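To illustrate this point, we now present one chain and its tokenised fold:
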Amino acid sequence: MFRGFYTAATGMIAQQRRTDLLTNNMSNVNTPGFKADQSSMRAFPDMLLSSLGESKIPTEKGLTLANMPTVGALNTGVYMQETIPLFTQGDVRETQFTTDMALVQGDMPLNGETGLPGMIFFTLENPDGTNRLTRNGNFTLDAQGFLTTANGYYVLDDAGNRIELESDQFQVSEDGRIVVDGTDVARVGVAYSDDPQALVNEGDGLLRAPDGVVLPNAYAQEDIAFRVNQGFLEQSNVDSARTMTDLTNAYRAYEANQTVLQAYDRSIEKTVNEVGRVN
């Protein structure tokens, strides 16, 4: 009985975590460059049950042999194994702000191990000097004239330097070159990851390469195609209709496990208060 109690409880916990994930996706449906998270559910390892018994051998001495007939497999619950970001291109919307930029990627080579395509990212510098990655091109100019993100991260050029501009009167070509009065002043830094699933998500649309790995310059990769669109923003790739459907299913699964848990609770209560009563 207690085993079923814990099995239903693990189902509730797993669905609660899935609900939190889906809710976070819905709350970021309008966040530029946001990549939806996906969950992977997995059952705990099955246990093979056997019953302890004995067989009597009809001999003069009445021999008894122990046997363990197989009852069958028993599952002990479910858990959310991992959270996987969905790295697909989001829709591109025009904003007409010169500091807004969107990465529009074409064909990307597939990773030989994962079978998934690579991904490109804007390169940023954290105020503490470390590098970060993002798909959110909602940039602005700070008081010192540096191109930054809304949370104060510096946008880097393809040489790893901060981009400093006198005003927002500049043009960005599709190959990332920033032009002021007909002169190239910088080139927007774009990094390429052949395995974006390995990147570490730090929240707020920021990622970093694991263990200090330096990602290659996307402009130097001959087998990838992309462009930088000025005055546009990449939208979130969250499918709101599907996410709402998944949320409803998660709620129903949670309630189903809750009903089972309540039934076990009533059974235990009856066992303790009635069956075990001595008259």
Notes: The radius of gyration is 29 Å. Residues 99 and 139 are 5 Å apart (CA to CA). The chain is about 20% helix and 30% strand. The first strand starts at residue 37 and ends at 43.
